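Retry 2 of 3 after timeout on previous attempt. Resubmitting C-alpha cells to design endpoint.
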C-alpha cells in the first residue's frame, strides 16, 4: 500500500507548482497500478496515519519538508514503513533569496539568518527521517539535499506536466497557427517574482522583438503596483494556462533568482512553446532540457538576437509520452526498497 500524504495547507492554489506536481504524482501512481490512497495531513493527525499503517511494510510518499516532528514520530511508530520524501526547493536557500535584507543597516538580518538556519535544520531532520528522497531538481539534489540527507538516499524524480491529461480536449496548435506572443506566467510578489516581471518588461522593450506581443498574467499575488512598459499587456489571473500555452509561441522565465524546478518549463515544452530562461536558471535546468530552452539575458544584445533567431523556427515539443515514462520509472525506483 502507498499512502500519499498531502498537507492540506501546502497543496497550493490551482495552477501553482505544488498543485501541478501533486496532480502529476497522482497520474503516475495510477499508471503504475499501485494500490494507493491519499491521506490529508492537518499537522496533528499523524497518529491516525500511523494507525492505518500499523505494522505493515507500507510506503509513504510525504509531501514535503515542513513537519520533521511528524515524520520522526511516524518512523518511531511504524518502523517497517518506508518514507519517500518529495523535495520541492532547497528551502533554506529559497528563504534567504526571498528575505528582505538590508546589509547597510543590518535591518532584519538576525531574523533572516535565524530563518535560514531553522529551515536548514528542518530540512536536515526531514532528510534523515526519510528512507529515500524524490528530488524534483537535479541541481538542488547535488548541491543541497545530498549534503543534508546523504548521497545514496536521493533520486531524481522528474516533474510530470498534468495539463494534457486534465485538459485532453485542448490540443497544441500547429506552429504556423500560433500567435507571435511571449507569455509570462508571473508568480508570487516576492524578490523572485519581482525579478521575473522585471526581466520580462526589459525584454518587451527590446527593438529586436518588434512585432511581438508580450502578455503578463497576474500570478498568485497583486501585481497592480508594478510599473510596466506599454508593450506589456496585463491578462489578469489565469487558473488554467494550458489553452493559452497551446496557442502562443514562447514563454519567458527571466528571473535569475530561486531554487527548485520551474514547472512552467515542462508545461510550456509539453504545449510546444519555446522557453526563454535567464542564464542562471538555465544552468540549473536538468541537462536533458537545457538544449531545448533558450538562455537569454534581456540586457545582453547577443543573447536577445540569438533568441529572436531561435523563435523563427518551430519549437521542439517535449516528449509527453517518453517524459511520462521516465518519470514513472523514476517513481517506481524511488518507491522500491
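Retry 2 succeeded. Sequence:
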Amino acid at each position: 500500500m502507498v499512502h500519499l500524504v498531502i498537507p492540506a495547507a501546502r497543496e497550493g492554489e490551482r495552477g501553482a507548482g505544488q498543485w501541478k506536481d501533486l496532480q502529476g504524482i497522482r497520474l503516475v501512481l495510477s499508471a503504475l497500478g499501485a494500490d494507493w490512497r491519499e491521506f490529508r495531513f492537518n499537522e496533528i493527525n499523524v497518529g491516525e496515519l500511523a494507525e492505518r499503517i500499523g505494522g505493515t511494510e507500507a510506503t509513504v510518499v510525504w509531501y514535503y519538508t515542513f513537519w520533521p516532528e511528524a515524520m520522526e514520530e511516524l518512523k518511531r511508530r511504524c518502523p517497517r514503513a518506508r518514507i519517500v520524501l518529495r523535495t520541492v526547493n532547497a528551502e533554506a536557500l529559497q528563504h534567504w533569496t526571498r528575505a528582505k535584507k538590508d546589509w547597510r543597516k543590518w535591518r532584519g538580518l538576525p531574523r533572516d539568518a535565524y530563518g535560514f538556519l531553522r529551515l536548514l535544520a528542518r530540512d536536515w531532520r526531514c532528510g534523515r527521517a526519510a528512507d529515500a528522497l524524490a528530488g524534483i531538481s537535479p541541481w538542488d539534489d547535488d548541491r543541497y539535499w545530498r549534503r543534508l540527507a546523504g548521497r545514496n538516499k536521493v533520486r531524481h524524480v522528474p516533474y510530470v506536466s498534468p495539463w494534457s491529461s486534465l485538459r485532453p480536449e485542448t490540443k497544441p496548435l500547429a506552429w504556423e497557427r500560433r500567435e507571435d506572443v511571449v507569455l509570462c506566467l508571473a508568480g508570487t510578489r516576492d524578490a523572485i517574482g519581482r525579478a521575473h516581471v522585471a526581466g520580462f518588461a526589459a525584454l518587451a522593450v527590446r527593438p529586436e522583438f518588434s512585432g511581438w506581443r508580450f502578455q503578463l498574467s497576474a500570478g498568485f499575488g497583486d501585481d497592480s503596483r508594478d510599473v510596466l512598459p506599454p508593450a506589456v499587456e496585463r491578462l489578469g489571473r489565469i487558473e488554467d494556462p494550458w489553452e493559452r500555452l497551446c496557442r502562443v509561441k514562447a514563454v519567458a522565465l527571466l528571473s535569475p533568482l530561486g531554487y527548485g524546478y520551474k514547472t512552467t518549463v515542462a508545461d510550456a515544452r509539453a504545449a510546444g512553446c519555446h522557453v526563454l530562461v535567464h542564464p542562471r536558471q538555465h544552468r540549473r535546468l536538468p541537462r536533458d532540457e537545457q538544449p531545448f530552452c533558450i538562455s537569454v539575458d534581456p540586457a545582453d544584445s547577443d543573447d536577445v538576437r540569438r533568441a529572436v533567431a531561435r523563435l523563427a523556427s518551430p519549437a521542439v515539443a517535449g516528449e509527453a509520452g517518453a517524459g511520462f515514462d521516465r518519470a514513472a520509472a523514476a517513481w517506481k525506483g524511488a518507491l522500491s526498497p
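Attempt log closed. The longest strand covers residues 2-7.
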